[in-house]
Amino acid sequence: MEASVVKAKVTMTRPCTSLFKDLNSLLSCISLLQTCSCLLGIGNASELSEFFLVGLTDDSQLQPILFALFFIIYSFTVVGNLGILVLIVVSSRLHTPMYFFLSKLSFIDFCYSSVTVPKMLIVFFSDCQTISFSGCVVQTSCFVIFVVTEFFLLASMAYDRYVAICNPLLYHIIMSPRLCLQLVAASYAVGLTNAVLLTSTIFHLTFCKSHVITHYFCEIPPLLKLSCSDTQVLQFLLFACGGFNVSVSLTIVLASYTCVFLAIIRIPSAQGKHKSFSTCASHLIAVSLYYGTTVFIYLCPISEYLIGRDRLVSVFYTMIIPMLNPIIYSLSNKDVKEAFGNILKKTS
């Protein structure tokens, strides 16, 4: 048993190529989406060559303030998520399954924020408020991939906490590097499947009402508002995909944490209970924020879509949550703070 544990730890201590694997996976997904788009004929169903993005506001006095605010938020998002990713790669004490999943979460938060925010910042101070039809396809596809992947990655992290607390002696055997990679690959596979299904259906619609998207990126609900085709099938598909993603991933999260809480209650010492709960608290906060906002957008009927309200909610989950996740996972995490301190000592 000890030999298996040592072997698992040694294998897990090879994440130096983790970032490159993530980037290769991202490029592979985009390439596959482009291939699928060509095979499915995306882009031939509409005469539109581009869309016009309204952005968040047309108030010239408010735009500089929002630009400065969102630029700062995005800067924190990039520095925070890439910082955690690099910290996990270079710190040997963080080469465990828990931080392996956290590095993937940081990568996804960085990616889906970068899919939308830079374009929004450009729109504030530029006449370039248009996005090409193919650019809209790629933006929507990438956004769906990362949003859906995060659902199942959060579920994988919940399962990881369940094994760590309920089966601590077998933790490194159950959560082997192979299983960790399989869980991440499965999360990306579900995200890619959703992206292909939804984008291939959406961009086969005829957009004849307008080319103006009342949003700051190509999000699905405002796109459906522009179509003069029958969108009932697509609305059902959107609700079915969203319902599947939320119900399956949330069931895993709730089942895992139900078992975790039952295990924590049986711990005799108050210190042991506090330590066990503190490892789960940050993840529960991240799950609550993410599920609450995304479910609000994608499981509400399109007929109830309100431009101003939904744009504010989109700002929250495309910018605020990716910025908060590094803070949530680092400020309450003793291992991360100690690893960061050790790196500062070495570099100074």
Question: What are the salient characteristics of this protein?
Answer:
globular; mainly alpha; transmembrane; 348 residues; disordered N terminus; 76% helix; three-stranded mixed β-sheet; Rhopdopsin 7-helix transmembrane proteins; membrane; sensory transduction
Could you characterize what this model shows?
The radius of gyration is 21 Å and the shape is globular. The protein has one domain (2-340): Up-down Bundle (Rhopdopsin 7-helix transmembrane proteins), CATH 1.20.1070.10. The chain is 76% helix and 3% strand. The chain contains twelve helices and three strands, in the order ααβααβαααβααααα. It holds the Pfam family 7tm_4.
Per-chain topology:
Layout: H1 2-12, H2 18-40, E1 50-53, H3 62-90, H4 97-124, E2 130-132, H5 133-166, H6 171-174, H7 177-202, E3 212-213, H8 220-225, H9 232-265, H10 270-298, H11 307-331, H12 334-347
Parallel strand pairs: 1-3
Antiparallel strand pairs: 1-2
How large is the count of helical segments? 12
Shape: globular
Largest sheet: 3 strands, mixed
| Stretches with pLDDT under 50, minimum 5 residues | 1-16, 34-41
Short summary:
With 348 residues, the protein is mainly alpha-helical. Helix content is 76%, strand content 3%. It has helices spanning 2-12, 18-40, 62-90, 97-124, 133-166, 171-174, 177-202, 220-225, 232-265, 270-298, 307-331, 334-347, and strands spanning 50-53, 130-132, 212-213.
